[in-house]
Design a protein that fits this description.
This protein has about 200 residues and is an alpha/beta fold. Strands 1-4-3-2-5-6-7 form a 7-stranded parallel β-sheet, with helices on both faces. Helix 6 links the parallel strand 6 and strand 7. Helix 3 runs parallel beside helix 7 and helix 6 crosses helix 8. The chain is globular. The relative contact order is 0.19. The C terminus is likely disordered.
Length: about 200
């Protein structure tokens, strides 16, 4: 049966590992991989309760199950939001606050649903994962939106706001495949990031 599993203080429980990144040359499509992995939801080291509330909702779990997913892994960070208990009626739900490395959950995912942190986005793109970036539309100075929009225009990812996660998720399942990101070229990412934010590189998560 389905179950929900919550972990706390996982920082001390897990040995940090880096997963090998595949050399992806084919288009990145959510529909190709739904039965091969899980949905991975991540907010990095931040808190983004609006994202967790939707991704952990019964409605999202039902939509995900309809797309062929059987499991969702939610990394909720420093926020207070947790998956709804009834979400486990549709999917296996595994949730935790943080791990030293998210690479294992990232590498086995069929879809990554992420906050717009540059480092997290780059990790998902380099892992060759279909990526749905959720922009925090409550931020006053929203460089996240500019960065996500730029990558969307290039065909590498889809992006949305918390209120439209479910709508965009369904559209991704029926839509065209994304373009694989050119791994080993962080300079490209960094140059876009510099243009948009004045940041010094892709390390910010």
């Amino acid at each position: 049966g389905k179950h929900i599993q919550l972990e706390n203080n996982s920082l001390s429980n897990l040995e940090s590992k880096r997963a090998e990144r595949p050399d992806t040359v084919h288009p990145v499509s959510m529909s190709d991989h739904t039965r091969a992995g899980h949905i991975f939801v991540t907010v990095g080291s931040t808190e983004f309760d609006a994202l967790i509330e939707v991704a952990g909702s019964v409605r999202f779990a039902e939509l995900a199950a309809n797309q062929g997913f059987t499991k969702i892994v939610i990394q909720y960070g420093r926020g207070s939001a947790r998956p709804h208990p009834d979400a486990s009626k549709h999917l296996d739900v595994h949730a935790y606050d943080y791990k030293p490395s998210l690479a294992e959950d990232m590498s086995t995912a069929a879809l990554v649903l992420s906050h717009a942190g540059a480092g997290t986005c780059l990790e998902a793109l380099e892992a060759g994962k279909p990526l749905l970036v959720v922009v925090n539309d409550f931020l006053a100075d929203n460089h996240q939106l500019e960065l996500a929009s730029k990558f969307n225009q290039e065909g590498y990812l889809e992006y949305t706001t918390p209120a439209k996660i479910c709508e965009r998720f369904v559209a991704m399942g029926a839509g065209k495949a994304l373009k694989p990101y050119e791994t080993g070229n962080p300079e490209l990412f960094a140059s876009w990031l510099n243009d948009l934010t004045g940041a010094s590189g892709p390390g910010a998560r």
